[in-house]
Amino acid sequence: MFGVTGRERARVRPSMPGLSPFGGGSDDATFDERGEFVPEHIPEPRSFLADHEVLVADAHVAVHGIARELFEERGVYDMTFGYNLARLNLDTRHPGAGFRYAEEGGERNVLRAEFTPTTAFCPQTHTLTIGAFRAWNGLSERHDYELVRIRAAPMHQESEAVNEQLRSLEQEYRETGSVPDEREESATTEGSTADAPF
Predict the structure, then answer these.
(1) What's the pLDDT score for residue 178?
(2) Phi-psi region of 5 (alpha: psi -120 to 50; beta: other; left: phi over 0)
(3) Model pTM?
């Protein structure tokens, strides 16, 4: 998977004729329909969602629809497949990859989102999860959650390091009420092999 920022997306799109932001039309048999909940095509809830109210059926579809809109606005794109990252949940070629959600402790004000990449060595898991955090919490007026906590699934080889940075961003967001400036984030990851976050 390869992530891309909104600025990069503007440069990439023109060079890819016919690229759809959602990776195909609604009649494309490669993808489930947006309103469908197909458990065998999405990740199993893992440790970050354990002991919380995992969203299923219409509740999952509704929350994932918000993710799609936020990712579109903030340019959270998977450039390997050429689409909005939320589309991964519907891609039948990659069952078990994408996002799962849970409401923390049954409360509606905190959402947990766990991202499972297509491979354990996906080089853009860092960029994509940070981008998802920034989209959800930077556009908090678009949903009813006070906080959306994002984590990479433990199957990813660098999940501990990625999740440590996500915990740090989350703590700063809780303390300040605003998403940390991306330039500050870039400075904290200097020397890392991961790309700078969105």
Answers:
(1) 92
(2) beta
(3) 0.78
